[in-house]
Each structure stands twice: as C-alpha cells, then as structure tokens.
Automatic annotation (TrEMBL):
Residues 403-432 have a biased composition (Acidic residues). It comes from Absidia repens. It holds the Pfam family F-box-like. Gene3D superfamilies: Ribonuclease Inhibitor. Residues 223-242, 400-456 are annotated as: Disordered. InterPro entries: F-box-like_dom_sf, F-box_dom, Leu-rich_rpt_Cys-con_subtyp, LRR_dom_sf. This is F-box domain-containing protein. SMART domains: LRR_CC.
Length: 480
C-alpha cells in the first residue's frame, strides 16, 4: 500500500490542483510533502475579498521566510483598491501574469508604471474605470511584450493613440468599451494592426461610426486593366504585370482582424447593411456577434445565414428596430449552432413567436436555447408567415416617426424600412437618433462606483446596453 508521503512532489502537485481553495488550507497542514505541494498552488491565485484580506496577504508575504510572492501568477480585485495596496503586492509578485481590477477608480499612473517595471511577464490586464493616462500605457507597451489580453473599460483619460505602444504585443483580446477617445484617424488605424485579435468589444464608445467600421473592412480591389491596354503590353512586360497583379490580389484579399470570433459594438444610425454586410462576409470565423443600436435590416440577417451558418453561436441585436420576426425565424433555421439571440428593444411582437411560452410583456426580449429549438422543430407554414408579417406591419405603423411618411411593403407583406439604396439605408435616421439619444434608460451597470462621465454628461442612456453585453460576454455557455 502506497502512502501519500511516499508519492513524489510532482504527482502530489497534480492532485492538489483539483482541490478547491478551502481544501488547500487543510492539505497544507497534513504533512511536509503535501505542504510543499500545496503552497505553490495556494499562492498561485490568492483570494482577495476585501481590505482585511489584502492586509493579511501582504503581511504574510512580508513575514514569510521564503519568497511566497514568486508563486503568485494571478490577482483579481473586485473591490476598490488604492495605489499603495497594489504596490504592496507588486513588491513580491514579480512573476505576475494576470491582473484584474474591477473598480480601479483610485488606481493611477503611480502604480501602473511600477506594474510594467516589476511584472514584465504580464499576459492579461483588465482595468475598469482606472484614472490612468497615456504615460501608463506607454510603459506597459514598451515593457510587457507578452501581453495577450487588454481591457481598459471606462478609462476616460487616455488618448486616441493609446493602442500604438502595444503594436508589438501579441494581443488576442481587446475591450475598449465605454471609452470616448476612439477616433478613425488614430485608434482605428492602430487597431487593424493586431492580426491575432479574436475578441473585440467597442460597446458604448459613442465614436464608433460608419468610417470607423470601414477601416475594419478589406481594402477595395484595384481596377482591372482594360482589354485594349492589356493587348498592347509587350511580352517583356508580361512578367512584371503578372507580379503586380499577384501582389494586388494579395493586398485586396488581406482582411483586418482575420481571426475575429467575438465582435460587439454600439452603433450609430449610419452603421447599416452597407457596412455590416461586407464586414460579416470578410469575417467568417465569427461565433459571437453583437450589433447594438445599428440600422441594420433583414439583409444583414440573411448575410449571417449565408456566411456564418455553422460558426455563429450567439447573436445580440439590442435596439435594431428594422428587422422582422420572419427574418429572425429564417435565421434560426439556417444556423444550426445558434444558441441565443438577444432582441431587446427590437420591438418584435411576442406573439410572432408562438413557441415562446411563459413570458410576459408585448415584445420578445431574448430567445434562449429552448426557444430556438422549439422554433426549429416547428416549421413555418404559409399561414404562419402571413400572420407574422401582418402583425409586424401593424407594429411597424406604431414606430413611424412622422405620421405623413409613406411605407412601402415588400413581397411578403413586411414593412420595408430600407428600400432606397441611394440614401444608404438611412430612411430611419430620425427614429434611430431618437433611440440613440434617449437618456431615460436608468438601469444600473454592475459597476455602481463607476467614474462619472466627463463634462456635463450625466447619463449616456447606455446602461441597459452595457448590462446586456456584460451578461452575454460573461455567460460562456449561453444558458438563458
């Protein structure tokens, strides 16, 4: 019979990695062998609950005979934290790889500059509402060359060139939500350089417009040579022409952010089918797509059905009022791996989805896995389609901004709110502007101590959007 004290430390280490945090304390007191195997695991990610635990842990680091701080790889603070407290950890945790501060209102350049100097192995950094400036991100980009995940949510004091120092970092995850300093000229151009990026969140940024999204599209293909000109080229220049054409093809097919699987934005009225459709066509690896308050129509849903049928898992369409329930049902059947669709404020009548039961209210808010499976198992008939179209027509009449506006009907009897390509699908700009500018949405984000917006902006009307996206991003299994 083999006793625990006869097992090698390497094997014991594998065993204790499957024990919860509370159980690790008991293991550390069993014998010397288990103690030696448990301590590195116990200190790898110390549990920091409140101010008292911070003082207890930092005191333990200072009084320990061995360098316990060298075991620390991950720190997560979900309470307010002072620069002085963070510096106490950084004095010992020089091999830190992950740092998350959910309420960083009191964190400034003083501690973040030291973070970049003392923790060059940092791979993940998430700061919410930090009071940092460009000085901090400059040193982070220059010293932390292994950084893969970066979240700077609500860090209002940064500049449009914030991403420039991270040009050489292998960023895969980027969250700049609630940041108002993003620009087309600087931020968008720096953003497209991160070819390894798989996760991008730009929610409630206000400056994300048509031109910004256009920077994320492949460059247009160069015009082909006219046949008469090609025929006049000499044989000696054929090789050069071929090389030029090959290079042109390579450039035209290069797509910014080609590995993107998660994309979330809060749009403006000018972000419509004309820019979202080519974006979807050029990013066919998307698994989770959230287009909030965009002027998209059924055309975008058809594009998702065509280009993302086997990849899309989660879809958020908060505030997209120009889509119809018929297109949503069609999308569900075309995408067998779709698990969830967020439809809050899309004003789609609940009785257009008879499979959805046990819900109150007039409009559908979200379709979870059970709802989607029920819709897939209940094929639409001509009668059902006609009924849904009629319902949407009646509901659409209520959403007309001006009672004198005429509405054209499409072949299925649905309201067609984007029937003029010449004006870029902006027939509903008045409606969308009213929606985007609505300051009556007073739901609170989970970060109740967030830094208030600069200037005279008291409420940006985006709290409900934030709460929705956060719930979708944090819910890996999309269990509604």
């Amino acid at each position: 019979m083999i006793h625990l004290d006869h097992l090698p430390v390497e094997l014991l280490s594998l065993i204790v990695t499957n024990i919860d945090h509370k159980g690790l304390y008991h293991c550390a007191l069993v014998n010397k062998q288990l103690h030696a195997a448990t301590i590195p695991v116990l200190w790898r990610s110390p549990k920091v609950d409140d101010g008292s635990s911070i003082l207890r842990i930092t005191k333990g680091l200072s009084l320990a005979r061995s360098s316990l701080g060298l075991y620390i790889r991950k720190l997560c603070f979900d309470k307010e934290l002072l620069d002085s407290a963070l510096l106490l950890f950084l004095d010992h945790a020089t091999l830190l790889e992950e740092l998350t501060i959910l309420h960083a209102e009191l964190i400034s350049d003083k501690s973040i500059q030291q973070l970049s100097r003392r923790c060059p192995q940092l791979k993940k950094l998430r700061l919410y509402n930090a009071n940092i400036t460009h000085r901090s991100v400059h040193y982070l980009g220059q010293r932390c060359h292994h950084l893969r995940e970066l979240a700077l949510k609500g860090c209002h004091r940064l500049l449009p060139i914030t991403l420039l120092p991270f040009a050489d970092c292998p960023l895969e995850y980027l969250d700049l939500s609630e940041c108002r300093w993003l620009t087309v000229e600087d931020t968008a151009l720096d953003l497209v350089q991160f070819n390894r990026l798989t996760h991008l969140e730009l929610v409630c940024c206000r400056t994300i417009n048509l031109k910004f999204i256009q920077q994320l599209l492949p460059p247009p293909s160069p015009p082909s040579l006219d046949g008469s000109i090609q025929s006049s080229l000499s044989s000696s220049s054929t090789t050069t022409t071929t090389t030029t054409n090959v290079n042109a093809t390579t450039i035209s097919t290069s797509t910014p952010l080609p590995l993107l699987t998660y994309f979330a934005i809060t749009g403006t009225p000018d972000i419509n089918d004309h820019v979202i459709t080519p974006f979807i066509k050029s990013h066919t690896a998307l698994e989770s797509l959230h287009l909030l308050k965009c002027s998209i129509t059924d055309a975008t849903l058809d594009t998702i059905s065509t280009y993302l049928p086997t990849t899309i898992h989660a879809l958020g369409l908060f505030g997209c009022e120009n889509i119809t329930s018929h297109a949503v049902r069609k999308l569900i059947r075309a995408c067998p791996h779709l698990l969830m669709i967020g439809l809050e404020n899309c004003l789609l009548p609940l009785h257009a989805f008879p499979e959805v039961t046990g819900r109150d209210g007039r409009y559908v808010q979200i379709l979870g896995y059970a709802d989607i499976m029920a819709i897939r198992s209940n094929p639409d008939t001509t009668t059902t389609t006609t009924t849904n179209s009629t319902v949407e027509e009646e509901e659409g009449i209520m959403h007309i901004n001006d009672g004198d506006n005429d509405m054209d009907m499409d072949d299925d009897g649905n309201n067609n709110n984007n029937n003029d390509d010449d004006d870029d699908g902006n027939d509903n700009d008045n409606d969308m502007n009213m929606d985007a500018g609505n300051d009556d949405m007073n739901h609170n984000l989970e970060q109740t101590t967030a830094v208030p917006p600069q200037g005279n902006e008291i409420n940006d009307g985006m709290d409900e959007v934030r709460a929705l996206v956060l719930s979708l991003a944090d819910n890996t299994h999309y269990s509604i």
